[in-house]
Write a structure and sequence with these properties.
This protein is an all-alpha fold. The protein contains 17 helices and no strands. 59% of the residues lie in helices and 0% in strands.
Amino acid sequence: YTEAWDADKKSIHVMPDTPDILLAKANAANVSHKLYVQAWEDAKKKGYDMRADAIPIKTARASRDIASDYKYKETHEKEKGHYIGCPSAKDDPKLAQAARAMALQNDRLYKKAYNDSKTQIHIPVDALSVQAAKECQTLVSDIDYRQYLHQWTCLPDQNDVIHARQAYDLQSDNVYKSDLEWLRGIGWLTEGSVDVVKAKKAQELLNDRLYRTRPEQLKFTSITDSPDVVLAKTNAMQLSDVSF
């Protein structure tokens, strides 16, 4: 049955220029790692020629010289001890510039003119800023702000003083509680007070004995010929091992 099919399978030949074959070859070439690095491998086999005066070599050397601390300080080291032609350090422009920069950076010299001019300032006593400062000092002063009770600054019979005394008496705790002084020492029973009555009512609400009625206190008589009782008796007789 399969002899003809097996013989036919061996005789099938696909042309090498069909679209599927060409597409498969193109895909294989695209995913091939060997073909991907073929140009790089060929370039490595040819070698390279890097001359000493090439631009990358010069750039690398210049960058190295700039980054080198030795090359950075080489000119300064060579100029040490070669200051010739100046009779003193003040005549040398570089030293004079360094001394000037040091003097500008010195805090004592920077504030010397200010400290000398501080004691030479004369302000008139009636200047506007001085008067404002005095009034501000008076406002923030604790001595002028506080007025003790025994130091009266107004007449005691003025209407505002009388009104203030009445307000103080109303706000005074002693005057507020003076009507309760007669209650001190008087005995009092808590029976019948609001809190006691409220506690009793809460106890009655939470009392389990008053809330629940026990089953034995209920008057109940079961009917012996009711359907559920008769059914229960019948089931008991059917499940009884003795009767069985």
